[in-house]
Amino acid sequence: MKNRNVQLLLLAVITLFACRKPKPLDIVIPEKNNDAVVTSFAADNVIVVSAGYSAQALKKLDDTAAGFIPKDLLMDSAVVTIEQQGKQQYKLAKASNGLYMSDEMKLSEKAEYKLTITDLKTGKITNASTQYLPFTNEAEVKTTFIAGNGGDSLLNVYVAVSNVEVSDRYFISYTTLEQLRKNAKLPELTSLNKGIKSIVSFEPKKIQLADGNKATNGVLEHNFSINATRRDTMVIQIVQIDDGYYNYLAAYKRTGYLINQLTGEPINLPSNIKPGYGYFALYDTKRFVFDLTKK
């Protein structure tokens, strides 16, 4: 894989999995028997799967916690495979503790894929299945400052997706390069298996959900406003997903918790991980990058 492609992948991963410290939980997390917590991502012909353990009730997660996920919550010794139904099985390479990647699979549109994670420490096997959804629609994104002259200004983001079916579901992620620098240090990669030091966490308030039911004449329009500086670069990604993952993200977003997926679920969220938590989904992204200094 070319180094530039890897860097673009990392940018995409971090955009969708924006890192921050866990916030205090104001509810009690039931004790769990180290069930698996799984997330996934696919972009630029690279598949990324993160695997860890749900937090025990005795673990205290607060603002004093380390910025990165505790090592004992990462599944650092596992065999992770993905198999297209009736076709070849691919083993993902360990990139770092809890993070497994492959650039060998060529995903087929709407094909069914089965994920199998075998934890070599406990012997537990976790499975999940999903359908790959590439992004094939035409899309347009416009950004316009609507308030503020310096520092944080209010930026309006307009997204339009064409040829949308009523049953289509999307999410839109956004971040800035400045936020990425604050949240996670982009590593210099020399190969697929080196340079990634930790799994970054998922922040549900950093996404917008869009429903094909709201499309007019096949065009789905979505507007939202965010704070941004005029000296920064904005990265926006559009992703088509299935109903299951859409419902998962909608429920997760409604919780309002900025906790890491690898700490387990504060409420009963939809999941296709058996047994476990999180969601296994394969999708591609349509990525837009805006230099806000030129706005």
Work out the count of structural domains: 2
Show unreliable segments.
1-9, 14-31, 56-68, 184-204, 257-265
Count of DSSP helices? 3
Strand fraction equals: 35-45%
Overview of this protein structure:
- By secondary structure, the chain is mainly beta.
- It folds into two domains: 129 residues, Immunoglobulin-like; 134 residues, Sandwich (Immunoglobulin-like).
- A five-stranded mixed beta sheet has the order 5-6-2-1-15, with helices on one face.
- The longest helix is centred in the N-terminal third of the chain and has 14 residues.
Tell me briefly what this model is.
With 295 residues, this protein is mainly beta. The chain contains three helices and 16 strands. Residues 1-9, 14-31, 56-68, 184-204 and 257-265 have low confidence and may be disordered.
Characteristic terms for this protein:
Immunoglobulin-like, 2 domains, disordered N terminus, five-stranded mixed β-sheet, mainly beta, 295 residues, four-stranded antiparallel β-sheet, 16 strands
What's the SSE blueprint?
Elements: H1 3-16, E1 36-43, E2 46-53, E3 78-84, E4 89-91, E5 93-96, E6 99-102, E7 112-119, E8 125-131, E9 139-147, E10 152-161, E11 169-176, H2 177-183, E12 207-211, E13 220-229, E14 233-241, H3 243-255, E15 277-278, E16 285-291
Parallel strand pairs: 1-15
Antiparallel strand pairs: 1-2, 2-6, 3-4, 3-7, 5-6, 7-8, 9-10, 10-13, 11-12, 11-14, 14-16
